[in-house]
Design goal:
By secondary structure, the chain is mostly helical. It contains 15 helices and no strands.
Length: 361
């Protein structure tokens, strides 16, 4: 029988995935190499989805194996306590931001659609973006589409495994991949952005594969992973990194449909390499990347707000970000401010809500 684990390596990987998103929004100087590297922020989001698929499936499957059932109300309550407080705080900020910007005397961009509470409050911001063929004109709403997708996944996945049980996962997982491929085909065909759960379902399903194997066939699964030589694992990691950098520059209608599934599989296999408890192929909890990883939810929601704020301040000061030294300083300052703000948010705002999760186990 398995015992619940904390996957410290995944905290580090989560932070690295966030950095990919951050690079896209913050790397502003005119450098061919920098602009090449910054492309493909969606790769970071893809990884978040695969990681969520693994962790949520593992939590549910572990509880079902240990107790014979899943308390879906408690499961959802724990997820809501993690997601809702900061989500609604940032929704409130987004709607107040025009007044804040006006008070500070900073310039404001009106590009994008005007937010509507009817979409923001019930976690439907992603569908508003799909319908509008645009992003909201108030940060951080443009990046919150993925939080909405995650929330939809928690609810649907929790209910699916509650009613069907983990024994159905070998049928559920391939079905999700098929649904995702068909959905993306239709969305691309009719010109809609793939910002909903159905078009991203294969990421969550791919993450569920190693979770299912770890719970139901732990000994054989870990033996298989440990049989892979470390040098082969390192080559695989380098291959995945290379594809993450290169593939965003390769565009085609077929690629838009198939490429996400490819990365879903690649990221799922990548996670599997760090799962055996006996392997040294891990990043410990004492590593700075692992420590930063637990703040990535706030980092993800804060970073565009803080980047834009610093950008307006730099613009008001009459400085130019076209110069590489200034742009490099801007990048470091915006990342440091994002990390600091996220740590403060976690300690003073998020932690009290997370402390309530103990009542729902």
């Amino acid at each position: 029988m398995t015992t619940k684990r904390h996957f410290e390596t995944f905290d580090a990987l989560r932070f690295l995935a966030f950095l990919k998103v951050f690079l896209y929004h913050a790397l502003v100087y005119d450098s061919p190499l920098a602009n090449y590297l910054r492309a493909g922020a969606h790769m970071g989001v893809y990884f978040f989805f695969v990681l969520s698929g693994f962790l949520i499936t593992y939590i549910i499957a572990e509880e079902q194996q240990q107790t014979g059932q899943v308390n879906v109300k408690h499961f959802l309550a724990r997820r809501f306590l993690r997601i809702w407080p900061l989500y609604y705080l940032m929704v409130a900020f987004a709607y107040l931001s025009p007044y804040i910007i006006s008070f500070l005397g900073l310039a404001r961009s009106d590009e994008g659609y005007k937010p509507e509470l009817a979409f923001s409050i019930p976690f439907l911001e992603n569908y508003k973006a799909i319908i509008a063929h645009d992003a909201a004109n108030a940060s951080p709403l443009p990046v919150m589409w993925s939080v909405c997708v995650e929330e939809h996944f928690y609810i649907i996945w929790g209910l699916l495994l509650y009613f069907l049980g983990i024994r159905w996962l070998p049928r559920i997982i391939p079905s999700c991949v098929i649904v995702s491929l068909i959905s993306r085909l239709l969305f691309v065909r009719f010109g809609y952005s793939t910002l909903d759960l159905l078009t991203n379902l294969d990421f969550f399903a791919a993450g569920a594969v190693p979770a299912y194997l770890l719970i139901t066939r732990q000994e054989r699964f870990e033996r298989l992973i440990n049989s892979i030589r470390p040098i082969v694992k390192w080559y695989y990691i380098l291959l995945v990194v290379a594809l993450v950098i290169v593939m965003p520059h390769v565009t085609s209608p077929i690629g838009d449909i198939l490429s996400p599934t490819l990365f879903a599989v690649l990221f799922s296999a990548l996670l599997s390499m760090f799962l055996p408890q006996t392997t040294t192929f891990q990043i410990g909890g004492g590593n700075v990347l692992s420590k930063l990883g637990k703040y990535t939810y706030a980092m993800y929601l804060f970073h565009t707000v803080l980047i834009r704020l610093l950008d307006r301040i730099v613009e008001r000061a009459g400085l130019s970000l076209s110069l590489s030294p200034m742009a490099g300083l801007f990048f470091v300052a915006s990342l440091a401010l994002t990390i600091l703000a996220s740590m403060v948010s976690y300690s003073l705002f998020e932690r009290p809500f997370l402390g309530l999760k103990k009542y729902f186990y």
